[in-house]
Amino acid sequence: MSDKFANPRNAAGGSLRQKDPKATSKIPLKYFAYGLGASNSITFSKHSEFLKEISKWGFIINPLTKNVSNLEEIQKQHSQIDTLRSSLDYDIDGLVYKVNDLNLQKRLGNTSNSPRWAIAYKFSAEKAVTKVKDIIIQVGRTGAITPVAKVEPVTVGGVVVSNATLHNEDEILRKDIRIGDTIKIQRAGDVIPQVISVETSKRKKESKKFIFPTKCLCGAPTSKEISKTTKKEDAVRRCTKGYECKFIAREKLKHIVSKESLNIEGLGKKVIDQFWDLNLIKKTFRYI
Ligand SMILES: [Zn+2]
């Protein structure tokens, strides 16, 4: 399970989307019942009443659910759960506070995409300290050269992290991130972890500033475009070879087959990589 999915949310979603219900039934999914869809012949006046009742029926409700009555208690509950967070055997990124009175919930109603009677109070992003093993560059489908820090594997928010994004050349310069540095990273949601700070006190004397490569992985020179509107130099360096760059071509192919584009089932990023390495595909034409 953990090999197949990036995080618990994807694992739960992916498991439920299996075409064969027998396959789904084999996956040990557990859930906390937390809300009412529809009901008839039984009415509740309070959300807490509803939770109490369904737990009698055998539904598992979260034992950490609590009634709070003012801002102070909201804050207290938030910090208490935050300290418990790492000891829970499931991942959470925050708490949801709901109006307990169901009549008031009805009166408050919903906006176009969320209820007015419930609000999420997120925890700050999880952080961890690790070491930069290497800084590599990746070439995107638009030719953008993105630096990535290869870090010593560390667990952040239940996920083992071995890469951190460095955004662009300026970011490395501004934060003076070097190979061998001890860094603090943070991970919020599904995004690739970011580097928050460098612990320069832990830096070795022989450490050298990272010199950003001026060439693409294909060997062609890179350049920063000048924006027509602001007349400022773009922060992103790009390969100048365009469609002729094989690294760009490979990324373009991955995009073409992806869900966002032609959505070709069974032909994903990994297969493109394999075909590419086997020399079965080599070109992206301009008209696609
Ligand atoms: Zn290139």
Describe how the helices and strands are arranged.
Elements: H1 8-16, H2 21-26, H3 47-56, H4 71-84, E1 94-98, H5 102-108, E2 118-122, E3 126-139, E4 145-156, E5 159-165, H6 169-175, E6 182-187, E7 194-198, E8 222-226, E9 233-239, H7 246-257, H8 269-277
Antiparallel strand pairs: 1-2, 3-4, 3-6, 4-5, 6-7, 8-9
Helix pairs in contact: 7-8
Bound molecules: zinc ion (ZN).
Zinc ion is lined by residues 139, 216, 218, 220, 239, 241, 245, 247-248.
Concise overview:
Helices cover 26% and strands 23% of the residues.
Written overview of the protein:
There is one protein chain. With 288 residues, the protein is an alpha+beta fold. It folds into three domains: 31-122, Dna Ligase, domain 1; 126-202, OB fold (Dihydrolipoamide Acetyltransferase, E2P); 222-277, no CATH class. The chain is built from eight helices and nine strands. The chain has helices at residues 8-16, 21-26, 47-56, 71-84, 102-108, 169-175, 246-257, 269-277, and strands spanning 94-98, 118-122, 126-139, 145-156, 159-165, 182-187, 194-198, 222-226, 233-239. A five-stranded antiparallel β-sheet has the order 5-4-3-6-7. Strand 3 (126-139) and strand 4 (145-156) form a beta hairpin. Helix 7 (246-257) packs antiparallel against helix 8 (269-277). The longest helix is centred in the first third of the chain and has 14 residues, at 71-84. The protein starts with 7 loop residues before the first helix and ends in an 11-residue tail after the last helix. The model has no long low-confidence stretch (mean pLDDT 88).
